[in-house]
Task: inverse folding
């Protein structure tokens, strides 16, 4: 399932809102899993194709090297070009209905095109059994070499983090709805100056860790302006102007959002440990 526009927008706007973190610099192909990215490309998002190929370049190199039983230099060896074109072909041809993951399907396509290339060049096949180069099994372990398996594990880890982050975003989306807050509005709520962002982030964390104020926020679905203003010595007008920003920060800080909390790092140390 593709990310909704709001979810994708949140990923792109985190750095703007908080002035911290690296999410805004994460390529969109890493915000989606490979199957979602391929689906987006097939639906017309061609600008993602080169990003996906670049992301999986090490996988393409190891696949070509495994076939050749030697290291393949991407700048000199034709086998890399063959594998690269085959990976691009796999993006166009992949269908989830086939039952395999994209990385396994791409490995099969690359191996088959490398076999065709070897036949034309009349080399490799005399010393490399055909059966060792192609597999009809949908088990990715039968397709990937140990080197590729390590790369696949690395890719899986990145995908899992991205999936967990998407799950947190979807949960946050639902939690924000009763407060009348959408991600589109939040893009305009970010303080323009770093010192203002830092100050509001700390207020948001403190709000999350003050149980009575947090209870008021969650019960009434409104920022407790009077109480918060007195505790923080901040004008009601300032709090009201950044109401949606502060509510969002507080809900993230108080909720089960470990990945999103990394992007609002900077809470006072004494506030992170224990809620008042």
Result:
């Amino acid at each position: 399932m593709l990310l909704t526009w709001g979810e994708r927008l949140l990923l792109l706007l985190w750095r703007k809102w908080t002035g911290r973190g690296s999410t805004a610099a994460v390529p969109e192909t890493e915000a989606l899993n490979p199957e979602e990215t391929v689906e987006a490309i097939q639906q017309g998002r061609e600008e993602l194709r080169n990003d996906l190929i670049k992301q999986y370049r090490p996988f393409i190199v190891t696949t070509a090297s495994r076939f050749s039983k030697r290291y393949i230099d991407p700048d000199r060896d034709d086998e890399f070009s063959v594998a690269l074109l085959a990976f691009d072909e796999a993006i166009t041809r992949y269908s989830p209905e086939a039952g395999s993951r994209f990385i396994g399907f791409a490995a099969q396509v690359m191996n088959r095109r490398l076999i065709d290339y070897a036949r034309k060049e009349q080399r490799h096949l005399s010393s490399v059994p055909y059966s060792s180069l192609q597999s009809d099994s949908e088990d990715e372990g039968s397709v990937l070499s140990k080197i590729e398996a390590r790369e696949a594990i690395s890719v899986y880890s990145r995908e899992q983090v991205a999936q967990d982050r998407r799950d947190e975003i979807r949960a946050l989306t639902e939690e924000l709805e009763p407060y009348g807050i959408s991600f589109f509005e939040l893009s305009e709520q970010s303080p323009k100056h770093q010192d203002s962002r830092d100050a509001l982030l700390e207020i948001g964390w403190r709000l999350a860790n003050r149980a009575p104020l947090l209870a008021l926020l969650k019960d009434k679905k409104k920022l407790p302006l009077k109480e918060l203003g007195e505790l923080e010595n901040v004008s009601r007008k300032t709090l009201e102007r950044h109401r949606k920003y502060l509510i969002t920060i507080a809900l993230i800080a108080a909720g089960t959002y470990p990945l999103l909390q990394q992007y609002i790092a900077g809470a006072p140390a004494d506030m992170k440990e224990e809620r008042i």
